Amino acid sequence: MPLHEVHRKHWLLFGADLTAQEYSIYDSSSATADADRANLVRYAQVAMGLALMHHSNCVQPLQWDIKYRECPEQDNGHDCGLYVMAFMDVLSMKTDRLYFDPSYARHMRDLCLVSILQGKV
Fold it and tell me: Cα(12)–Cα(115) distance, rounded to whole angstroms?
């Protein structure tokens, strides 16, 4: 689930691993993390946990650990949304390793532009 930190205008990815029973954070700018971002993650944990309690057989999702995953870091202050899309794309391939270089984020930007120009979004 993409999370948007409004005051910093930063996007990060929050996910739930139902098998491991833990939450994962993918943040392309982890060096800028602060208490506000930690609160945002905690709110997402509660929201996701309540949804999982209501719609699945997950055991105590409000108690699951939150893991900050190693992931590629953006090399500028404006590509965080593209990195979130790239994280989702790579994770959807069910790979054990989340790795790509900055050119992949640029590739995501190109895909978005093509989709907009073709009227798909």
Answer: 22
Residues of the chain with pLDDT under 70: 96-97
* Euclidean distance between CA atoms 32 and 116, whole angstroms: 31
pLDDT tens digit string along 89-121?
888 887 766 777 778 778 888 888 999 999 987
Q: What is the C-alpha to C-alpha distance for residues 102 and 56, in angstroms, rounded to an integer? A: 37
Task: Strands of the chain (E only): list them.
Answer: 2-5, 10-17, 22-26, 65-68
Find, among 104, 82, 66, the residue nearest to 28 by Cα.
82
pTM comes to 0.85
Residue with tokens 């409004």, as numbered in its chain:
6
What rounded mean pLDDT belongs to the chain?
A: 89
Domains of the chain: 2-117 (3.40.395.10)
Q: Please give the C-alpha separations between residue 68 and each of 14, 24, 43, 110, in angstroms, as whole numbers.
A: 9, 6, 16, 28
